[in-house]
Amino acid sequence: MKVVGVGAGPGLLTQEAISVLQGADLVYGSDRAIELARPYIRDGCLVHQIEDYRSLRDLPGSAVVLSTGDPMLSGLGYLGGQIVPGISSLQLACARLGVSLLRTVPITFHGRRMEPESVADELRRGRCVFLLTDESTDMAGLCRYLEEGGLSRKIAVLTDLGYPQERIQQGFTCTPLAVPGLSCVMIGDW
After folding, report:
1. Which of 27, 56, 87 is at the close of a domain?
2. Pairwise CA distance, residues 16 & 21, whole Å
3. Cα(165)–Cα(146) distance, rounded to whole angstroms?
4. Rounded to whole angstroms, how far apart are CA atoms 64 and 94?
5. Domain around 105
6. In the prediction, which pLDDT does 112 show?
7. How many independent structural domains does the chain possess?
8. Does residue 150 sit in helix, strand or coil?
9. Which residues, in sequence order, are bridge partners of residue 105?
10. What pLDDT was estimated at residue 25?
């Protein structure tokens, strides 16, 4: 099996990913991933929307599984096989904000319980924290926790990275920004 990162938005597939897609006979992905990869999927290739993520390990070895962004950043890289990287939201956020990837620690709250102390620990180490969030993320609560711990920092909320409607809002943890649904958030000093 090959797990191919299709990038965070349109036009962000690597040449390696495009080559794999052009040679694929069987492709699986979410609606969004298929849409991003569609221009590079050859005629005659069987394309299936993923309906049960637990069954992905049972796919034939010739299958190509699409992962939005990069498979190794909260993606489908856990499936193993050959991993073809994609341009991630982390890479885009760092580029847009001018933050070095070497100073940045990714943490995901998407589909997971928020652990504010993990963010605070990294900020105390002088790192910037890149968060993947969802509608259940209590950003106001996280910012309050950081402020109470003496960790006032810059914050940026990045939505629809890589898309024409991309939006970046910047502020500070003392006045938390609204974080809509699936978003990326950078917290730190940059």
Report:
1. 87
2. 9
3. 30
4. 28
5. 90-188
6. 77
7. 2
8. coil
9. 129
10. 98
Examine the domain organization and report whether 22 and 83 are in the same domain: yes
Bridge-partner residues for 128, per DSSP?
Answer: 104
Amino acid occupying residue 147: E
Question: Shortest CA distance to 64 belongs to which of 100, 12, 16?
Answer: 16
The residue written with tokens 């180490």 in the block is 125
Residue 136 is predicted with a pLDDT of 87
End of a domain among 50, 72, 87?
87
**Which portions of the chain are predicted below pLDDT 70?**
none
Pairing of strands 82-84, 104-108: unpaired
Handedness of CA 126, 130, 135, 136 (dihedral sign): negative
C-alpha distances in Å from residue 59, one per residue of 28, 66, 91, 116: 9, 13, 30, 37
| Length of the chain in terms of residues written | 190
Pair of tokens at residue 80: 């193993």
pLDDT tens-place string over residues 2-13: 999 999 999 999
User: Domain check: are 126 and 175 in the same one?
Assistant: yes
What pLDDT shows up at residue 84?
98
Under 8 Å between Cβ of 70 and 86: yes
The two structure tokens encoding residue 116: 């504010």
CA-wise closest residue to 75 among 17, 126, 136, 4: 4
Name the E strands within 9-139. 26-29, 46-49, 64-67, 82-84, 104-108, 128-133
Residues 99 and 175 in one domain: yes
- Spatial contact of 108 and 86, defined as CB atoms under 8 Å apart: no
Do 172 and 82 lie in one domain? The reply is no
CATH number (domain holding residue 174): 3.30.950.10
